[in-house]
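EI: anyone free to look at a 328-residue chain?
SC: sure, send it
EI:
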Amino acid sequence: MSSSDASVDTPEWLLLVVSLPTQGATARMRIWRALKAMGCAALRDGAYLLPGTPMHRDALQELADECTREGGSAWLMAVAPANPADADAYPQLFDRSEDYAALTKLWKETAATLPSLGVAELTRLQKKLRRDYEALLATDFFPGEASLEAEAAWTDFNQRVDRVLSPDEPHETEGQIPRLDIADYRGRVWATRRRLWVDRVASAWLIRRFIDPGAQFVWLAKISDCPRKALGFDFDGAAFTHVGERVTFETLMASFGLEEDTALVRMGAMVRSLDMGANPVAEGAGFEAVLAGARERLPDDDALLSEIGNVLDSLYAHFGREGARAKA
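SC: here you go
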């Protein structure tokens, strides 16, 4: 979007002029931090500009009221550029190029340290960096090339994180998923990559709970170590892996006719959200945190499956109860 386009799309601007109380450093700091978090442009000390949206009007009015309550004074007004030069200049006050550059530099430097971090530490770091990035996006009112470049850099950074958390993550394949007879898949040996993460641990739980109660699992250090007669899952070339937009958990559901189970469908959406970065699911963050902590604490994948299997049992019961209530 060019500056001239921005001035057309934003015909009105909001100007907040405040005189903060001389007493009460805590209140002054709270108001100043709120103005900064909103992405206000400081025209001078005490004068702050924002694009004239209803959301910004409400937020600035709330700050103006707070300033008054704290013994200061505040005036919120709608303003318009006096001439075309000002109309072009106002959006430039919100140029976030330097902020994006600082973030992308940080991501690049952080990427070099990823292999040395533990799972829990890596997960916490990724969430913190995501919050910082989303906060910047929320104040980028006139996005341009810098935001596009940052988006590409953020995608690259997350892919690096995923490679550390889940090396040899499978690529999606295309094609139909044939319906299989569960009776032919009982008492089998199943194999996947060791150091289980979201899709693998959920798929192993699904196999043992709904497909092959007597399943034996082999956790592979290398895909090439997969036994010839084992049923591989969640790696390239495996019998069961990503197909189209389906993660391995969902491929297994489709293969064995489990897609009518609404609780499993909810769980599949959660696995896809965490594994592929799809639409966030309310329970996803909590499950990911529990899994990250368990994987940090339990070096043995059999113990990890046992512990997280209990969590997945509880989620299945929860989703099942919600589904029953919805039908009632």
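EI: The chain is about 55% helix and 10% strand.
SC: 👍
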